Amino acid sequence: MTTVWRWSGDGVVALHFAYLAYLLVGGFVAWRWPKTIVPHALAALWAAHPLLVESVVWLTDLKRLLASAAVLAGALLWEDVLERGRARDAILAVVALAVGLASHPLALALAAFVLLRTIVADAPALRARGARGGLAAMALLVALYVPLGVLLSGGIDSSVVTALAVRASSETVKTFSISFAESSFDESQYARAVAKFLGTDHHEERFNASLAANLVSEIGAWMDEPISDPSVVPTYLLSRFTRKHVTVALGGDGGDEIFAGYPMYFGHHMARAYLSLPKFLRRGLVEPLVNLLPVKTKNLSFDYRARRFITASHYDDVARHHVWFGSFTPDDTEQLLTEDVKHVSESDIYRDARRLFAECDSNNMTECMQSLDTQFYLAEDILTKVDRSSMAVSLEVRAPYIDPRVAEFAASLPASYKLHGYTSKYILKKAAKGLVPPFVWRRGKKGFGVPFAKWLKSELRPLAHDLLSPERLGRSGIFNPAYVAKLQDEHERGVANHRKLLWTLLSFELWRESFVETPKRIETSVTAS
What we know:
Blueprint: H1 10-29, H2 37-48, H3 50-57, H4 62-83, H5 90-100, H6 105-128, H7 130-143, E1 149-151, H8 156-168, E2 174-180, H9 188-198, E3 201-207, H10 209-219, H11 232-243, E4 248-250, H12 255-258, H13 263-275, H14 279-291, H15 302-312, H16 317-325, H17 330-336, H18 339-343, H19 351-359, H20 365-391, E5 396-398, H21 404-412, H22 426-432, H23 438-442, H24 452-455, H25 461-467, H26 470-476, H27 481-493, H28 499-528
Parallel strand pairs: 1-2, 1-4, 2-3, 4-5
Helix pairs in contact: 1-2, 1-4, 1-5, 2-4, 4-6, 5-6, 5-7, 7-8, 7-21, 7-22, 8-9, 10-11, 11-20, 15-16, 26-27
């Protein structure tokens, strides 16, 4: 399952101490000051062969003594750094202590000591270098989980995780990605380029419409609940493919939420600018022109993004944000649900989101939306999707970005370090320079898109018409059959792109077939016999 990592055990503590000592002493300090060569040599030796030393002292207290001495040497040397005015890299020590060593009492004391000295010494300079601390934290997280695999898309989140795994591993790291025949959805060339740059053992599998049709018919059995994210299908394929090689894999999930990577964050600024235009210009000129744009089925095509932007702009901040993410708008829902369902349903589907948004203790819109996305989209969509897909094939996927200590560090940074003008993940991209190829941090966000818009007109059309037939929907009494038929007709004629809406309905019906209709038929059969 997708997990947040916790650390325990003396062996883990000792290894963390060793790695921290290497970072503090070997990486930044000792080469500048000759008088520190002795503790540097000792700490570097400990860091270079932690498993060898652990195997010798595993059953004794010597391990704790050596580990504590190594960290103490690092802290004392860092004190020397601060006194000499070279505090710009001290944040690395703070984060490394907090991430790797929180389970050890000495580490907690040293972390408080170094943090206090850091703040007093040169807080502004340290803040400017803070991103390196986040990467050091993730390096510690991946260090104990190799050999393993990494789910590599070629985007910045998974590429940084891969780079840190390569640095931490003594063996060749395996990476895995999915390719598409449709070029606008295919990122495999970027994943291959990153894998080549980092020297990983890269594996790739092709995802096409025929394979999608087979996989879609399987997912209802293990979803447990309806999942409206269409990327659940390629995630399942990627997990099944990856499981042939490894049992544990790392992913880049959470990076968008903690470093403000979604385009919707900047979209709110655009929406406010758009709403400042006179209403007659918006309703009389802009919106009619947008509606005249030809309908495309490419990934994040301009016409799709423009229509979605215009539609969402009619709602308040919370509703707008979730309309950009989701499928059915509140107005769509009014037409979709039957009167019986609406009578017993909550009229405001964003009530909980509005409550959490009101409770946000930040005055910054982006930070409040990040908080919402962490609690809703990340928890209820992304992690759920990955958990269901991977555990269906007994693969364990872990997400370093959502370790509490990494996420708390990111949350402590100013909002402008994440969304800087229109540049998302600003500080992560700065920190990634040198770790990954330049194109990774220069590219815009792509997302794990799936060409369902096209496939719903071809290979998936029979399945969609079967599960969304008027007779079937009429028996369930949940959705308005005439409205669903209208969505299918408009999509297939190419006058609208309803891929998100239709996949949401298809996903629900796949789940209902497995968890409601099939058990009901079995019960009826048993009762009759």
